[in-house]
């Protein structure tokens, strides 16, 4: 038993830890986390807030979302955030990011029958349980087309609240270049009752 006590102590046991070591390690960990968060939210994902009512009832004004951009390729049905700055006149859309649903992608065609409120993509009617209410003919129908051929590298978007959304249906908006896509909405953050994947 005495022989065990006579064994030389390891350097860790011989030297007591300095008080500043723990603080330094915590600061290193904190700075590492901050750096990872900055890279993540500048290069791959972003936080954004819904502004307006064009996506009611799916997303409401003021709700917070996480969007993903790295490697994203738009698909029909995705909810995307668009940066429409400089694309359209200020009377239609302000410079803030806007949220819309992808209805069609490059190479597809879109037709709208306002008499039935039906959207057709490549001649097939869309099943749209997400829309707020039946779509009506706009107040100024001369500004809204009923047929579009979507060029490659562009998307056709609409709000889920069709009767309160300025979107690709409007002749001054039309199909939107994919370069304006900031990312796909992947996670609802606020309010807490909606917290979870989209």
Task: Supply database-style keywords.
Umud Fragment, subunit A, about 20% helix
Mind sketching the topology for me?
Layout: H1 2-6, H2 11-14, H3 19-44, E1 45-49, E2 64-68, E3 79-83, E4 97-105, E5 109-113, E6 118-121, E7 124-125, E8 147-149, E9 154-158, E10 176-177, E11 181-190, E12 196-197
Antiparallel strand pairs: 1-2, 2-11, 3-4, 3-11, 4-9, 5-6, 5-8, 6-7, 9-10, 11-12
Description:
The chain has two domains: 2-44; 47-197, Umud Fragment, subunit A, CATH 2.10.109. 18% of the residues lie in helices and 29% in strands. It has helices at residues 2-6, 11-14, 19-44; strands at residues 45-49, 64-68, 79-83, 97-105, 109-113, 118-121, 124-125, 147-149, 154-158, 176-177, 181-190, 196-197. The protein starts with a helix and ends with a strand.
What's the short version?
With 198 residues, this protein is of the alpha+beta class. It contains 3 helices and 12 strands, in the order αααββββββββββββ.
Order of helices and strands: HHHEEEEEEEEEEEE
Total number of β-strand segments?
12
Average pLDDT rating = 80
Distance between the termini: 64 Å
- Main β-sheet description: 8 strands, antiparallel
Low-confidence regions: 86-94
**Which fold name is given in CATH as the topology of the largest domain?**
Umud Fragment, subunit A
State the CATH superfamily name of the largest domain: Umud Fragment, subunit A
Strand content: 25-35%
């Amino acid at each position: 038993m005495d022989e065990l006590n006579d064994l030389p102590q390891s350097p860790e046991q011989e030297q007591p830890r300095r008080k500043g070591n723990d603080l330094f390690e915590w600061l290193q960990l904190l700075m590492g986390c901050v750096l990872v968060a900055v890279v993540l939210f500048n290069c791959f994902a972003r936080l954004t807030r819904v502004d307006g009512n064009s996506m009611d009832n799916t997303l409401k004004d003021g709700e917070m979302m996480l969007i993903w951009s790295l490697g994203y390729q738009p698909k029909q049905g995705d909810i995307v955030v668009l940066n429409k700055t400089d694309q359209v006149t200020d009377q239609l859309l302000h410079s803030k990011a806007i949220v819309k649903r992808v209805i069609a992608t490059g190479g597809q065609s879109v037709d709208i029958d306002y008499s039935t409120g039906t959207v057709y993509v490549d001649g097939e009617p869309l099943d749209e349980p997400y829309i707020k209410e039946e779509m009506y003919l706009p107040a100024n129908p001369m500004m809204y087309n009923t047929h579009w051929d979507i060029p490659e590298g562009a998307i056709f978007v609409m709000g889920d609240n069709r009767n309160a959304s300025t979107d690709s249906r409007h002749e001054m908006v039309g199909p939107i270049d994919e370069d304006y896509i900031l990312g796909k909405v992947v996670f609802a953050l606020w309010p807490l009752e909606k917290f979870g994947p989209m």
